[in-house]
User: Fold this.
Amino acid sequence: MRHAGSDTNTGTPGPAAFAARYVGVGAYFGFVLVNSEVVSWYRIQEMFRFHSFHMYGVIGSAVLVGMITVWLVRRYELRSIGGEPIAFKVFDPGWPRYLLGGSLFGVGWALTGACPGPIAALIGAGLTGFTIVLAAAVLGTWTYAQVRHKLPH
Assistant:
């Protein structure tokens, strides 16, 4: 039996069905970000001024969930939905570049009040001024792509 959005030869969900799932999950994630005030400029400023624990609690919870998830994946040798083994890349100990990159990220986050993830949620919530932030993020990504071959990696 063929389902709507499925591949005509295999009956598996086609690209449109996968895209719809990603858009649905992304919209739900944006809804959660907005309603938990994680994308609130005021909450972000509170965090950078050490006036509130709210954001530290959210970030700490995310780190804890990530650690548990990685432990479970490694412990039980879990596989992806496609059946491939999940492997974690070991990064080199080039901490100065991570310090520089993290500092640039933090400065951008503090200045704009948004890290890259929630920008779309903020625009979707009606804060259209964040289209400028989105354009700057895209421009920064494009610039990095242009100079990446000249940078030490």
In short: The helical segments are 15-35, 41-48, 54-76, 95-112, 119-124, 130-147. The radius of gyration is 19 Å.
